[in-house]
Amino acid sequence: MNIDFSDIEYLKNPNGITLKADFKQFLLSLDVPTVIDISGKDQNRCRVIVTLLHGNEPSGLIAIHRWLTSHKELPTPETNIRFIICSVEAANATPLLSHRILEGGIDINRCFGSDNNKGYYQRAKIIEKIIQEVRPEAVIDLHNTSGSGPAFAVSSLLSTRGLSLTSFFCDAIILSGLELGALMEQDFNCPTITVECGGANDEQAHEVAYEGIEQIARCPSIDNFQQKKSVEIVYKPLRLELKQGKSLFYSTHNEGNDGVTLLAKIEQFNFGGAHKGQMLGWLDENGLDNLQLINESHEDVISEYFTVRDNQLVCATNLRIFMATPSYKIAKNDCLFYVVNRTGTSIV
Ligand SMILES: [Zn+2]
Known about the structure:
Largest sheet: 10 strands, mixed
CATH superfamily of the largest domain: Zn peptidases
Structural class: alpha/beta
Shape: globular
CATH class of the largest domain: Alpha Beta
Bound molecules: zinc ion
Strand content: 25-35%
Order of helices and strands: EHHEEHEHHEEHEEHEEEEEEHEEEHEE
Number of helices: 9
CATH architecture of the largest domain: 3-Layer(aba) Sandwich
Oligomer: single chain
C-alpha cells in the first residue's frame, strides 16, 4: 500500500450523512488521518483528543462516534474540541480494526519528537503541528491494552490539571520515565495524558472513553475542576522482560517447558495486582535468570520483586501489575508486564 504521509483530511462540525450510521461505516469512509473540529461555546479555547495511533485500539473511535451521534444535533462542548483519528489506513486494513500497524510499517507512537522527516516520522510531525496550532489546554491520547484490565492513564509529568483530566476517565495514573517517542512525551504546553481505556474488545473500555469525552466536553474549566474521585499515582513502573534467547509459554499447569511459562490467565492480575507469595508461572532450571527487571540506575532488581519456589515464579512482595497480556508476540518483543512494588503508590 502506497501511503501519502503528508495527507490529512479535515471535517468541521460534520453532519449525520458524513458520520454515517455507525463507527465502522464512518471509519471505512475515511482514507487518511482525519481531523474533526467541533465548535464549542468558547471558541477561543480548544482541547485535543487523539485516537487510533494504533489501528487495533478502537475504544476512542467508538466513543468519539457515539458522542458525535448520540443526539439529533451535534453536541456543543464548553470549548472547541479537535479530534484526530490517526492510523486510518492500518485500522481499515482487513479485518477491520485488527492491525496495530500496517504490514511493513512502523509504530507511529514511537516516531514523535524525532529529527527524522520521512514516512511515519513525517506524519508524526504533522500531527504534532495540528495539535500545536490550536494551542490546546489539554491533550488526551486514547488507547487500548492488548489484554483485559482496568483503565489507567500515563503521563511524563504530574500536574493538578493532569490529575483532573485523568479523573474523567479512570482512577490511576502512571508516571512514566520512559522516552519512547510517544505522542504523550511531547510538550504541548498543557497537560498531556495517554489513557489506556482497557482491553480492545471490552465494552467497559469503550464506556470509559465515552464517559471521559462526555465529561471533558461538559467541563467549563479544567483549572477549577474539583476532582470527584481520587487518583492513585503510580511512580515509574519497571518492565519485566524475557532475557534474549529465552523461550516463553503460557499454560494452566506446569509442563516442564524451557524458559518461562506464564499462567494462561496472567491478565487477571491487571485487576487488583498480586500478593506476596502469589504464583505467576513456572521457570526452568535457570530460575530467575530467564528474566530481567531493570531499574532507573540500570540495575537488575528481579530478586527484589520475584522469587522461586520449587520451580514456580512467585511474587517476593505485594505487586501492582499493568498490561499483562496473553499475546505471546507483545510479551516476547515488548515485555511480559509492567510492575510496581505496592509501596510505590500514593493517592491524591
Ligand atoms: Zn496503543
